[in-house]
Write a structure and sequence with these properties.
The structure is a homodimer. Chain A is an alpha+beta fold. The first copy, chain A, has 8 helices and 11 strands. Chain A binds a DNA duplex through helix 7. Chains A, B: It comes from Pistricoccus aurantiacus. Chains A, B: Keywords: DNA-binding, Transcription, Transcription regulation.
DNA sequence: CGAGTTATTGACAATGCTCAAAGTACGTGG
DNA sequence: CCACGTACTTTGAGCATTGTCAATAACTCG
């Protein structure tokens, strides 16, 4: 009995250690030595899964942790006075959440689970301290932030120059690439976000999202059924997303 | 003779040291002890001024330095295949340029001087190493990057939700605030960027920028003459930029 | 199974873009 | 210092893309 409990306990610990985590090659400790991974592991806190719709952090709450997504997905929504929300990001497994709160020491948006989602909680002050002793960790942190800036700049381009069709095509091919990178199918996946979320993120009305998805289907680019997506012609989508005309 | 040369040399050194720099309260070493400022100072390289239109860095060039603007201003322009450029940022004195190149080890855009501009060049590997020994410097670096992410998210909101009028109003009041923070007039300044640059940045056609600036003038919000701007009603501009209707 | 949310579809309107042309500022060289 | 060429800015007219409003259809989950 005690043996079984212990075994269960140990296996639970094991499955929640960075070294055995399937995301280790994508996540923050990706470049670390074994010893360093252990040190990093020691400051990480595992959390109970979030249910769909639950908030991981609330806008304006004091900043103290960053989070790495283990499974599921989240959205970040910033509300301004006037009730118009802006969805600024979707987060998938291995991605780091909360880095935009460092500066003002508050989280700049609500982070909401789109489905059942588990995250690792990483106290930022300890991460910062550890990054002093582990240069590789510091590098990785700088890289994550730098990448986030670059991604946002891509998004600026999307919002300022792309047509509605190009935006949807970008969105789908980018999701496809992100899933592929994580070992999932690049051609067949389920959207965890609503059409309204997609529209909000892409700067389009829900109706436009719906219409264009319909059109893509007619054009045999994708097969969409509710939130289930099958990509039929990834190349064409990618071309479209870069503004190349299609026949 | 030798004395004079030495004196000149020393004074030139003095005027280009962080401790005597008028931007020290806004720039990277803002929170450091005197000793640490000296250590930071030692890795900073001063550069000959850039002339208007000159490139500080070219897109895709290998990343090695970040830069702090000392005087003047710059724009960042990313070109994608297909010749459509996206202007992603304007940089004013004390701001840090190049942080978005860390991740890919290439600069993601051309950085072009909008007028005669001087910058401090900071080798990133040395900055990184120094940030190991000076926690306050590391904190400041994280903050700068975090702020850049937050600013970009604000920009996403602007591009995805704001009307052309709101965008221009945001642009002007944001510039006003940035000048004020740097000790310049918040009400009277000269735009170093062209209407085309503004339009590109805000996701608008040049013609729209011109028309709306004209309308703002009719409405007595600003007085614009070429690139010279006088803000007549900052409150109204700020209200407008948040989408509040105006009479 | 039914209430509420989410998605689709249609008709119409508006904001901002494109194209075109003229006017103005700028800077370079004579 | 002025003249000229170039680049930048303004203004007008028509139009396209996408948003808004409205109604219906399809899920989702107690």
């Amino acid at each position: 009995m005690a043996d079984t409990a212990l075994a269960t306990h140990r296996s639970r610990l094991l499955e929640t250690r960075c070294q055995t985590c399937s995301l280790s090659s994508l996540c923050l400790p990706l470049a670390l030595e074994l010893d360093d991974i252990d040190r990093f592991d020691a400051i990480v806190r595992r959390r109970a899964p979030l249910k769909k719709g639950e908030a991981l952090v609330r806008q304006h709450a004091p900043f103290s942790n960053v989070f790495a997504v283990r499974s599921g997905s989240l959205k970040q929504v910033s509300s301004e006075s006037g009730g118009d929300d802006q969805l600024t990001n979707f987060y998938l497994p291995s991605e780091l959440v909360g880095l935009d709160g460092i500066d003002e020491e508050r989280y700049p948006g609500n982070i909401i689970a789109l489905e059942t989602t588990t995250v690792c909680e990483i106290p930022f002050d300890r991460l910062d301290a550890l990054s002093e002793r582990i240069p590789g960790l510091r590098t990785q942190l700088f890289r994550s932030m730098s990448k986030e800036i670059r991604d946002d700049r891509q998004m600026l381009r999307l919002l300022s120059r792309k047509t509605a069709d190009e935006r949807l095509a970008s969105f789908l091919s980018s999701l496809s690439a992100r899933f592929r990178r994580r070992g999932y199918s690049a051609y067949s996946f389920r959207l965890s976000m609503s059409r309204a979320d997609i529209g909000n993120y892409l700067g389009l009305a829900v109706e436009t999202v719906s219409r264009i998805l319909g059109r893509f289907q007619e054009q045999q680019l994708v097969a969409v059924s509710g939130r289930e997506v099958n990509i039929l012609d990834l190349e064409a989508l990618e071309a479209l997303s870069e503004g190349e005309v299609h026949g």
